[in-house]
Write a structure and sequence with these properties.
single chain, alpha/beta, 6 helices, 32% helix
Amino acid sequence: MSNNNYQFWKSIWDSKGNSESTDLLFLDGYEHLGSDFSSAQITSQIIESLNIEKNSSILEVATGCGFLARELNENYRFVGVDYSEAIINKHKKLFNHEVYVCESNNLFFEDNSFDYVFCYGLFQYLPNTIYAEQTISEMHRISKKGIFLGDLKNKKTRDTHFVFPKKSLIDLKFTIIESEASNDDADRYSAFRRF
């Protein structure tokens, strides 16, 4: 994927963040999946996969406007980051969460800052393999207990999407599971690794 695709997606997220909408499915890019797409089911899958205990510290990379974050704020010490300042500003208007502007391949947190780190629906918007590998490395660096990569694709559904090879995740000792976002438009999966 070229830098042009990176800028294309950044402009999409910025425009969503700058919109008047408060519809979390739209704001976080899930509007095409329908109203039965459940943030509670997705966060349950993440919690169960990583065996996350209550009161654990959790970082969500590419937090968006809070579609998943709203499920985690009460029982966990939640922090989120996203590369779109407009999205982070919208998130702050909608929820009282600790969220920051930050690139996924250069997280500004110290080593082992969080018990768990996850992302959901991020990888298809990354610019290339190097950036994706840096993102995984950064998530690993700041996590004490495990990381979860949600809603990855085996194939592109748009020319502007990026696909990270599943084999690379298997080589990195990730466990592959079915994605909660599975639907007819793509062959999707999720991956997690406990430490």
